[in-house]
Amino acid sequence: MSVSVQEADFDTGAEIAALSRNDDGAGAVASFVGLVRGGSDGVGAMSLEHYPGMTEKALAEIVAIACRRWDVRRVRVIHRIGRLLPGEPIAFVGVASSHRGDAFAACEFIMDYLKTRAPFWKKEETATGSRWVDARETDDAAASRWGAAEGRD
Prior knowledge:
4-stranded mixed beta sheet
């Protein structure tokens, strides 16, 4: 189980391949890549900030909960910080499991909880100025469908 908070880009293909490398028991890998959205939202760039140490701990707790709920073999979470442009990757969540159901569920759970529980601060740059991004109700609703997470709710 591995989490990283970093400015550097990541190689999605390499991250996916590493999840099942040398593991004959891995029968499924599910992954998610989040991108900076531009276009109709008018976002020209997004800056992400975090509190070092606290953020990594929160991500590790989210992964630990997923590992208790589902039969997962490996998990990789990467979240980028710094200034990112539309189309650039922000986050990677990858889960290897013996079976696809566990891989899909754990991956989706981690992403839903990452969006609502990880201490990141996002500022969007638009043509009309900059604005801090609040959590969206849709993100809270997505996370709430998983029920109470141990030690968090």
